[in-house]
Amino acid sequence: MSEWSEGAIHRLAEALSQAKVARVSPARPGGNNRVFRIETEAGERKALKIYPRQDDDPRDRLGQEWSALVLLDQGGIARVARPLARDPSVPAALYTWIEGEPPGPMRHDDLGRFADFLIDLQRLSPRADSIAKASAACFSAAEAREQLGDRRQGLAASPSADLQAFLTQEFQALTAALDDRLARASPRAKAEVTRGQAILSPSDFGLHNALRAPDGGLCFLDFEYFGWDDPVKAVADILLHPGNELAPEWGEIFRRRIEPFFADRDAAYGERFRLLFPLYGAIWCLILLNEYRADRWQRRVLAGGREERLAIQDRQLERARRLCRWTREWVDAAG
Fold it and tell me: Which residue in 126, 101, 109 sits closest to 254, CA to CA?
């Protein structure tokens, strides 16, 4: 169901909460989902999340998020929602309501909060055998390069002349430089990550999926892409995610804060990071351009997005250009 009436949402909320519902109101826009604040007649607040089905994306996003939050709840991880009820046939789920506001720009102490949360997740590893791999996980240099190629191919059908000029000029030059580095890299840097090296990752981990709690701390949301991944990719995604808008010096602070923890667990971490970080930078260039893909734009529409598509595309192309230039400068400096 792509469109939900107020009555249908109200009935779903009552079915999942097993209580009379006084009010249902949109909580916040979501890139792939719809979230509502539910207030029962008893005065309780809960979060109702609906996961629109997407023909091009067969992943069980509800199942992945539910499994993640059950694991976090049982493991005593704080500042996340607790799972209450679900209906896979919709699909939808009910979670505890988290009080908070949009977090605003990244604060210096937020860097430690992100690092501590990611580190804290790893104590749950022994009980996480049933957790699947993270969305778009990469466990080797070859897998990351294949993902880059797949994302590049996904943009080939776009009729935008501006996009195609960027892809065949600036981006192609970056890709060539990355392929040269991969060809010269050591076998250890390119090797497949073992289960012992892999970590639990929120995957889509940024300020866009967080709330500023009344005490000033952060609460973390949206774990539908949670799972096992290479720690290099998990850290690179935090540094590169456009929702975080980390200045280079702040990114370096975060990297230095978390690197000792992963390097102690994984002797090849530093070498893999130096090789793979710019490759993930190139991948993020293409993620920024998803609005040029008809299938990805349809997801926005299903989730209730109404912003003008051409305006978004122009904005995202400029962001991709900036990231492409920055990544090429990083490659040139690293050699």
Answer: 109
